[in-house]
């Protein structure tokens, strides 16, 4: 915490020193470029000469400012034109199709490390071995037996009599999954 406070005080001191240095540089520059005017004791002709000199200096400064602005605008336009050219070229360039190259492990190591490698390295020796588990699959038998076993009759067939309303139904229709659809003999 105290280190943080020390850093903050140091930063504020540096900022204040920088501000004073900038102000001093500004005052020095203005003293060099703008000498103080001695207007006391001058007649009208001398005051007019001083005004003309100041206007000429203003005119020169305005010309320089205009020239600088024109250069900046020209450079800005050139940059935009070059950006557009780059974008146009980016759309027209067709990427070449990459070819698949088969490289053995030894050749790859030689290319990467140069001739520093000794002999051939077996990269498969470092791999972890994985045991394959046998997946047990259910044996698929006769589907008719599975349907009878699931019907709850445990292999017994229902005997249909002449007075039985279900006698008109065919067991084949039940086996085929068409329950409730009467089939005539």
Automatic annotation (TrEMBL):
One of its GO terms (molecular function) is actin binding. It comes from the Eukaryota. InterPro entries: Troponin, Troponin_I, Troponin_sf. Keywords: Actin-binding, Muscle protein. GO terms for cellular component: troponin complex. Pfam families: Troponin. GO terms for biological process: cardiac muscle contraction; skeletal muscle contraction. Belongs to the troponin I family. Troponin I is the inhibitory subunit of troponin, the thin filament regulatory complex which confers calcium-sensitivity to striated muscle actomyosin ATPase activity. This is Troponin I, skeletal, slow c. It comes from Astatotilapia calliptera (Eastern happy).
């Amino acid at each position: 915490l105290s280190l943080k406070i020390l850093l903050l005080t140091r930063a504020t001191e540096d900022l204040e020193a920088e501000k004073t240095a900038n102000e001093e540089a500004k005052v020095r520059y203005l003293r060099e470029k703008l000498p103080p005017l001695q207007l006391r004791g001058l007649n009208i002709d001398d005051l007019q000469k001083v005004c003309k000199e100041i206007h000429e200096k203003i005119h020169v400064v305005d010309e320089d400012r205009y020239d600088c602005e024109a250069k900046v605008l020209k450079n800005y336009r050139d940059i935009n034109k070059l950006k557009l050219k780059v974008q146009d070229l980016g759309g027209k360039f067709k990427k070449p199709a990459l070819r698949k190259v088969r490289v053995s492990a030894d050749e790859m190591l030689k290319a990467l490390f140069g001739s520093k490698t000794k002999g051939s390295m077996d990269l498969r020796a470092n791999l972890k071995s994985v045991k394959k588990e046998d997946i047990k699959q259910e044996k698929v038998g006769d589907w008719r037996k599975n349907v009878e076993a699931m019907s709850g009759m445990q292999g017994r067939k229902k005997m249909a009599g002449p007075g039985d309303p279900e006698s008109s139904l065919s067991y084949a229709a039940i086996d085929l999954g068409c329950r409730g659809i009467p089939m005539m003999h």
